[in-house]
Structure formats: structure tokens, C-alpha cells
């Protein structure tokens, strides 16, 4: 098969790496790709939002399957464009990707179908939002309705912070049109867990659990980022939690979308909060997580191309989704100043140290090649990932692996997976 992956981050590098392991994958393309992805795929200079160009490329090159990693193209309707051209593509149509594309939609869906989540209200008028805050309990959570690169969530500890948050989202438009509407919801306490799942419209098969670290600095301090590291599995995701989620959240979401005439095929990412009252949905994503993919796929034993095809064909019930009985930890190496302002173009040293080192991986998130040298080209630069027999070993291995690579002004959190010690 000829397979095209759409995207350019660490998630897409992990996807290309995993697809390359399939005996079905004869040729892999990635648009637009990055310097690390070149090892597994031919990078094509077409942007992820250039749907017509991507579809034309897929036709011209007889691509058998396209896999979309990013949220923007999915919400924007890339799947609809490809299907219209009778091209096979893995991912939800635009009317299903709204599960991530609008937080107001997803909250209303959960309320309608009794899927456990935080209490909330939706607002499209900043004055009404400000008036509502006068009667609210704190802390409280403000969410931009649309896509905001994983950064459109503000936790406000008091009324003044919340009012400033409304101004930031709805008036100053810090997250662009994503802030035309917003959700104000109750603040939930507990452990956060991410569960990615494959869906074929009817059947859902969950991947292994993971836990992300969103804040830029140690101790969950600093600004929200796209994710500074992750580990898998989560020791807090017990068999009891899994059973509850299967009964009340996972299948219920797939069935709710089908009932709404929004058949979902692709990946649903369940962001969960394990509250004292039981698991609640924090958020949905309509695609693979980043950096969760970098710890989930190295543990996956099943041929991923078989799974993609089963999701498209509605035969996921025939797939035995298997994961190794081990653990993985990913530490993101970022550019100094991220997530605000940072410099690009610093040479990256030590990437060759990962060659032939079993269980150690370096997934490129923001890199490019200049005159044969791989240099930094983003805020999150590398996802340094390692396996281990258990979480503590994987964590030790991941931080050992971080020492193998370097670039000017690099920084990472030193406490990724520290919660493991409390399990």
C-alpha cells in the first residue's frame, strides 16, 4: 500500500514510524512532514489545510490510504473532500469532528445523553458571561469553544481572574475565532487520564491509558502548552475505572454521535478526570493526542494499518487490539521561551545516539533540515521516549535518553511521571 500521513509534529512522526512496521506499507508519504519523518516517509511540501492539493496528490500518486493526525484539517472537512473524490481516508468527517471542534457542542451532547461531565453553561455574549461569574463558585474553568492548540483553557481561582479570562477569550480574542463562544464549567478535582480509542461508527476499541503534563514548568506551574510529556499506562486507571467508563462513557459517546446523525470513524481521545464521585469527561479530541501517541504506539502490538482499514470498513469488531505489558515515558524537549516566544534554527546534536538503541526513541515535533543539518523549528522540538518493564524504569530510561541529545536553549520538565511515585 501507498500511505499518506497528514501533519508535521511528533504525533505524525510516531504514526509514520508505526505504519512503517506494517508489511502492508510499501511507500509512505507525509505532508508536510519534518526532518525526523524523512527517515520513514517521503515528505511532500503541501500544507495540512490544503485539502484540494492533498487530494490531487493522493490521486496522482495512487495513494491507497490517507491518515490525518491533526485536528484542524479534520474539523475543516478534509475527510469530506477526500471521500467526495472516492479516496480512502482515516478520520472523522467534519460533522463528527465537531466533537472536538466545538466544546459547546460536546458539552450539550453529554448533557443530552447522560454522559458524566462537569456542570457548565455556554455563552456567546461576554456581558452575560461576566454576569454569570458574579454568582459562580471558585475555582472555575473557562474554555474557548473552538480549536486553540490545546491552550484555550483557563483555570481561574477568583472572580477577578475569571473576568480577565472572559476578556482574554471573548474580547481580546487571544485564541482567535475559537473565542467567539465559550464554556464556563465547574472545576473538577482528581487525577487526569487520557484514553485514546479507535472507532468505526459502531464499535469502539480503547488503546492503553496515558497521562499528559500540560503546564510548561515543573510542579504543574507556568502556562498551558500542547503537552510537555506523558506516560503510559496510568496506574490510576484501574480495572474498576475502565469498567465504569466502558458502561457510561465510551460506547455511550459513539452511540450518541450515531443517534445525532454524526457517525464517528477514526480516533476519539477521551480526556478524563477521576473525581471523588467517579470518572467524568473533561474533553473530547477527534484525533490522536500529542504527545500521548508517542507513548501509546510504541506499546501497541497490533498492525496499525489493519486497524485503520477496519475503522473505515466498519469491521473493527474483528480486530484484536493488543498492547505490550510494559510502560513508556515521553519527555518533551522544548525551545527556551516556549509557549510564548522562542528562537528557531539551532543545530540539534546527538540524534545519532538513538540509532540501534532498543526501546529508546526520539520523535521530531519541530525540526527541519538546513544544508544537511537538522535544526530546531518549533516550540516543542523533540519527544524523547523510552520503554521499560514498568513505569519507574521507563521514566529513568526516558531521562537517561534526554541526556543523549541537545540544542541551544533546550529545556524540559524534570518531573514527567512523578505522579507514578504516589500510585
Automatic annotation (TrEMBL):
GO terms for biological process: 'de novo' IMP biosynthetic process; purine nucleobase biosynthetic process. Its cofactor is Mn(2+); Mg(2+). SMART domains: GARS_A, GARS_C. The keyword Chaperone does not apply. Pfam families: GARS_A, GARS_C, GARS_N. Residues 107-313 form the ATP-grasp domain. It catalyses: 5-phospho-beta-D-ribosylamine + glycine + ATP = N(1)-(5-phospho-beta-D-ribosyl)glycinamide + ADP + phosphate + H(+). It comes from the Bacteria. Its EC number is 6.3.4.13. Gene3D superfamilies: 3.40.50.20, ATP-grasp fold, A domain (3.30.1490.20), ATP-grasp fold, B domain (3.30.470.20), Phosphoribosylglycinamide synthetase, C-terminal domain (3.90.600.10). Pathway: Purine metabolism; IMP biosynthesis via de novo pathway; N(1)-(5-phospho-D-ribosyl)glycinamide from 5-phospho-alpha-D-ribose 1-diphosphate: step 2/2. SUPFAM superfamilies: Glutathione synthetase ATP-binding domain-like, PreATP-grasp domain, Rudiment single hybrid motif. One of its GO terms (molecular function) is phosphoribosylamine-glycine ligase activity. Keywords: ATP-binding, Ligase, Manganese, Metal-binding, Nucleotide-binding, Purine biosynthesis. Belongs to the GARS family. HAMAP family: GARS. This is Phosphoribosylamine--glycine ligase. It comes from Anaerosacchariphilus hominis.
Amino acid at each position: 500500500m501507498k500511505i499518506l500521513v497528514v501533519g508535521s509534529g511528533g504525533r505524525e512522526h510516531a504514526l509514520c514510524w508505526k505504519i512503517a512496521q506494517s508489511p502492508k506499507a510499501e511507500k509512505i508519504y507525509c505532508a508536510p512532514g519534518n526532518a525526523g519523518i524523512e527517515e520513514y516517509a517521503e515528505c511532500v511540501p503541501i500544507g495540512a489545510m490544503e485539502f484540494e492539493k492533498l487530494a490531487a496528490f493522493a490521486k496522482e500518486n495512487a495513494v491507497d490510504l490517507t491518515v490525518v493526525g491533526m485536528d484542524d484539517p479534520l474539523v475543516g472537512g478534509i475527510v469530506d473532500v477526500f471521500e467526495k473524490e472516492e479516496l480512502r481516508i482515516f478520520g472523522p468527517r467534519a460533522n463528527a469532528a465537531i466533537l472536538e471542534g466545538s466544546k459547546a457542542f460536546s458539552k450539550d451532547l453529554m448533557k443530552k445523553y447522560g454522559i458524566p461531565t462537569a456542570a457548565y453553561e455556554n455563552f456567546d455574549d461576554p456581558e452575560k458571561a461576566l454576569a454569570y461569574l458574579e454568582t459562580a463558585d471558585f475555582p472555575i474553568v473557562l474554555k474557548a469553544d473552538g480549536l486553540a492548540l490545546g491552550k484555550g483553557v483557563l483555570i481561574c481561582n477568583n472572580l477577578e481572574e475569571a473576568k480577565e479570562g472572559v476578556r482574554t477569550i471573548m474580547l481580546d480574542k487571544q485564541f482567535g475565532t475559537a473565542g467567539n463562544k465559550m464554556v464556563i464549567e465547574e472545576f473538577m478535582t482528581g487525577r487526569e487520564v487520557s484514553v485514546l480509542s479507535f472507532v468505526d461508527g459502531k464499535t469502539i476499541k480503547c488503546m492503553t491509558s496515558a497521562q499528559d503534563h500540560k503546564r510548561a514548568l515543573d510542579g504543574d506551574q507556568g502556562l498551558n502548552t500542547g503537552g510537555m510529556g506523558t506516560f503510559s499506562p496510568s496506574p490510576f486507571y484501574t480495572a474498576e475505572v475502565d469498567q465504569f467508563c466502558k458502561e457510561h462513557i465510551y460506547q455511550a459517546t459513539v452511540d450518541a454521535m450515531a443517534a445525532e446523525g454524526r457517525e464517528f470513524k477514526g480516533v476519539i481521545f477521551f480526556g478524563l478526570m477521576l473525581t471523588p464521585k467517579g470518572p467524568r469527561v473533561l474533553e473530547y479530541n477527534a484525533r490522536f493526542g500529542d504527545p500521548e501517541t508517542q507513548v501509546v504506539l510504541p506499546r501497541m502490538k497490533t498492525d496499525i494499518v489493519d486497524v485503520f482499514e477496519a475503522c473505515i470498513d466498519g469491521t473493527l469488531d474483528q480486530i484484536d487490539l493488543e498492547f505490550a505489558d510494559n510502560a513508556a515515558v515521553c519527555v518533551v524537549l522544548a525551545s527556551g521561551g516556549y509557549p510564548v516566544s522562542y528562537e528557531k534554527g539551532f543545530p540539534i546534536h546527538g540524534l545519532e545516539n538513538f540509532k540501534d538503541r532498543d526501546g529508546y526513541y526520539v520523535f521530531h515535533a519541530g525540526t527541519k533540515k538546513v544544508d544537511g543539518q537538522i535544526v530546531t523549528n518549533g516550540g516543542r522540538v523533540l519527544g524523547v521516549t523510552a520503554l521499560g518493564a514498568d513505569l519507574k524504569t521507563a521514566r529513568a530510561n526516558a531521562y537517561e535518553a534526554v541526556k543523549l541529545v541537545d540544542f541551544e536553549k533546550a529545556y524540559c520538565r524534570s518531573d514527567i511521571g512523578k505522579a507514578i511515585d504516589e500510585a
